[in-house]
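yo

u said u wanted the structure for the complex thing, so here. seqs first:
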Amino acid sequence: MTAPDNASLYRSIADELKAAIRAGVYAPGARLPSESELADQYDASRGTIRQAFAALVADGVISSRRGARRTVLGGPRLQSFADLVSFSRWARSVGEEPSGRVARLEHRAATLVEAEQLALAEGANVYHLTRVRMLDGRPVMIERTAYPEPVGELVVGIDPSGSITERLEELGLIFADAEHTIDAVPATAEDARLLAVRSRAPLLRERRRTTDPSGVPLEWSEDRYLGQEVAFTVRNSVNRNALSRWHSGPEVS
Amino acid sequence: MTAPDNASLYRSIADELKAAIRAGVYAPGARLPSESELADQYDASRGTIRQAFAALVADGVISSRRGARRTVLGGPRLQSFADLVSFSRWARSVGEEPSGRVARLEHRAATLVEAEQLALAEGANVYHLTRVRMLDGRPVMIERTAYPEPVGELVVGIDPSGSITERLEELGLIFADAEHTIDAVPATAEDARLLAVRSRAPLLRERRRTTDPSGVPLEWSEDRYLGQEVAFTVRNSVNRNALSRWHSGPEVS
DNA sequence: TACATCTTCTTGTACAGCCAAGTTCAGCTC
DNA sequence: GAGCTGAACTTGGCTGTACAAGAAGATGTA
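structre next:
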């Protein structure tokens, strides 16, 4: 489990601090060493230590205020971006066995929403994959993912019972940024059948667009989770807020 | 609407850049000026410009990679932390008229969850307020908030039809950090009555703990939104992830 | 035209130093 | 003991420098 030295000093320091926090060396509420102490300890400059701390703040692990020692925030263990993009990786990281069953795979013209989210011209084709995802054999999520053609052509060659995302990464794709929209919807007839729940049961819906480092969309997915079994957690603060709330008005349907 | 000069150079630069992005000077996908250009323009050092950009990255407004100019990310307009903590402020920022109706106000012993979330000793008292929140007169959310005693004593003196949070801020409280847990639940009988929906209708549940700058909990709230009308959006990336996903296992109830 | 190479530009990482502002704590006073 | 004062400590903000690594565009070649 030895963390890689991530090619930069401040990252390896940040990783060590994170590991120490996870291991309980610094409990929630505890005060961390000062910048100068760590600078001595790692033989680094104060600026480098500050970069390491900034990374921890960005992950919502610690809080920092002028004049006072930094303190550890409590709450759930943090997850990496990679764990959010791949259902399989996430499942393993929380100690469960992921699996998947393909419900449908289509190669067709993009819908309006898909074209917009994937930044495609009107009428462009997409690969659209519907899968039921399971934890320890029990269905917990329906995944409806649209891939633009260049990505989709890779996807069709991948075993869909495992992790498509991880395979795409091995093929050289880099998932770098994502935008998630989360709301609650009633299960449709198909949802109910696939997840083995009542029709109109509450589902947690996550719509997600993932892009590569240069901003090119790689996938647009609408995932529906069993409402009470899966939850998302976000941390934010005055200085650091990637969360927003939206009102769409009453639905017509 | 002239932004305050936030007392530090990098903040005012960040604010100007944000305003320019919002105003469309830099459209989504467009490339921003380089660090050296801005350093000349603002007569600041490169480090200060980098701090300003770091703030934009933290807000999920731009993306940044070594070697390439920074680019503007598309997507929804960003909101401030303040808009998330206060329903009233949020409503006004999205152009709707907020209101509230008190359903219940209690002063009682904390439940186990409340005591844990507010870091109170077992048996300590809390003030617990249940309100129905409305947009343009239509109910969209039920707010069930527990305040620790020092805060609650202020709350009872505040007109509950308006914004309690904003009033608390005027009284000197500082809401600095928050942790949000989002899932979907079926409406209980009480929920259904208060929101005028069917029982077991899907609701989006947000559980939120807000703390002051030193980490002292100020409130613990369980808010339930009409499922299809309100959504939360989160942006994250490989370097910056405050979002995580959790599995709680099948519910017994 | 298509491709490879090279130069230039831009951002990332790290160092050093300075002052300001806020916190903490010991010590003093009442 | 309670409260105030002030020194020491700690983080925030800013400047400057240097080099490395990646991206982008220009140039040259086949």
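Residues 34-36, 50, 53, 64-70 of chain B lie near DNA strand C (CB under 10 Å from a C1'). Chain B has nine helices and ten strands.
cya
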